[in-house]
Design brief:
Shape: flat
Distance between the termini: 61 Å
Strand order of the largest sheet: 4-5-6-7-8
Structural class: alpha+beta
Radius of gyration: 30 Å
Helix content: 40-55%
Order of helices and strands: HHHHEHHEHEEEEEEEHEEHHHHEHHH
Largest sheet: 5 strands, antiparallel
């Protein structure tokens, strides 16, 4: 048996970076509360001055907006499923899963949008396939269906929550340990808040759940449940990871640029603020002991002179230009070179112009869509196999990301059909593709019905 709270060396190595990445993405109050971890203190800077700078700190969150833009754009057209063969009950279940994948009413597209954001921040996001726990072993499939034991659901875990693991030579998990922390109030009539830590261990056939309650009544780690998990018959660990490559891990590419921008923008802001409070200068050979202030006056001799210190602004302009360069570099490393000027300037562009400017961005979006589609297909197929539905599943939509509008695609489809190719299969694929794009936010049940009617009509039924 492994030590349940032991941490993988790669986990320890990346933990500090993950914390920083989460703060850089969130921004706002959470970032300001930990600004002392990121705002550099100048050499020999007085603590009271540094404290005032911390109090005035601000954060221009470019990377957070970039990640949210990618998530919104990739899921502009929600994923669509095509089911072939198998039991009708399996089709009905998978349709229900697309509309509620976590038994909390979350659509599959919304669930994976959060997974995708996690992967852009931390490099990976983990999805656990789980089934309701059975008190008594069901005797047949009908009993299993009636008691809801085959109602699979998904649980999302952040990269920081997978603390230990082992993989085989093919890169498949042999076992994993997930650590999840909760803070709850046990009863309404008690004000104490209980911190609870859960460890979930999964291997290819079984699971074990451990718990430790922290606080005044702290307990040792105890085993609270164990048994066979839902993918035991497939001899697979029920955890599937959505991971992006180093080149597509946006936060890892832009984090230090964002930190440099943060420190320099705050330094410039502080300098401008201090420049507003000009310091008086008196040029005199006499000993100076007069009080200077808004409610006072000074008396000067015939040869004395008085003035104010004021920066000439050259260093301010240099700092402002450097901040703009850093901002453009943040967008460039995130494959959005054109977006920096477009978002700042607010200029309108035609569909063709956008398509030309965002050629590289489109390829990156397609790469993200392909990775998401592969992960979704792997998860849904694993669920179908565990239920023994015998359904062939394909996912479409996410890797068809472009800037052109639906009218352009409609014209292209009409031109293709006018060529006169006598192929019912080609017509069905064109009609289904257009229907899926136009009905991308419709329920999966509606999409299935539309596909069925298209195929039936083309077959002459």
């Amino acid at each position: 048996m492994i030590e349940i709270d032991r941490e993988h060396p790669d986990y320890k190595r990346q933990l500090h970076a993950w914390r920083m990445y989460r703060d850089l993405y969130s921004g706002g109050h959470a970032f300001k509360a930990r600004a002392a971890d990121y705002l550099l203190r100048r050499q020999k800077e007085p603590l009271d001055v540094y404290s005032e700078r911390l109090h005035r700190v601000f954060y221009e969150n470019y990377i957070g907006s970039i990640i949210d833009w990618y998530a919104a754009t990739v899921f502009r057209r929600e994923p669509s499923f095509e089911f072939q063969g198998g039991f009708k009950s399996g089709h009905a279940f998978l349709t229900k899963l697309a509309d509620d994948c976590d038994m909390r009413g979350t659509k599959l597209a919304s669930f994976f949008r959060l997974c995708f954001i996690d992967s852009l921040i931390a490099g990976a996001s983990h999805v656990l396939i789980d089934f309701p726990r059975a008190i008594n072993r069901p005797q047949n499939r009908a009993e299993e269906e009636s008691e809801g034991l085959s109602r699979a659901f998904l649980v999302r875990y952040q990269a920081e929550e997978l603390i230990n693991w082992s993989c085989d030579e093919r890169g498949e998990y042999e076992w994993v340990v997930i650590r999840h922390k909760l803070r709850r109030q046990p009863t309404i009539d008690k004000s104490e808040v209980v911190d609870e830590t859960l460890w979930h261990y999964y291997d290819r056939s079984s699971y074990r759940t451990y718990r430790r309650i922290e606080g005044p009544d702290e307990r040792n780690i105890e085993l609270v449940s164990q048994g066979m998990h839902g993918l035991a018959r497939l001899h697979r660990v029920p955890l599937i990871t959505l991971q992006v490559s180093e080149g597509l891990w946006l936060m890892n590419k832009a984090a230090h640029l964002q930190l440099e921008h943060f420190n320099k923008s705050n330094a410039l802001g502080w300098a401008i603020t201090m420049g507003l409070f000009a310091m008086p200068v008196v040029y005199s050979d006499r000993e100076w002991n007069q009080i200077v202030g808004e409610s006072y006056f000074i008396q000067l001799g015939p040869t004395d002179r008085f003035g104010w210190t004021e920066p000439d602004g050259k260093v301010y302009q240099i700092a402002a230009d450097n901040l703009e360069t850093l901002k453009e570099e943040i967008y460039r490393v995130c494959y959005l070179s054109q977006a920096s000027g477009e978002i700042a300037g607010g200029r309108a562009q035609s569909a063709l112009s956008k398509q030309l400017d965002f050629t590289i961005t489109q390829e990156v979006l397609r790469a993200y869509g392909a990775a998401l589609k592969e992960t979704i297909a792997k998860i849904v197929t694993a669920i179908s196999d565990a239920r023994q539905d015998g359904i062939a599943i394909s996912v479409s939509g996410l890797d068809e990301v472009d800037i052109s509008d639906f009218g352009t695609e409609l014209q292209q489809a009409a031109s293709l059909l006018q060529v006169g190719i006598d192929s019912p299969t080609l017509k069905a694929q064109v009609f289904e593709r257009l229907a899926f794009k136009y009905l991308s936010d419709a329920r999966q049940e509606i999409k299935d019905q539309v596909v069925h009617e298209i195929r039936a009509q083309l077959r002459g039924r």
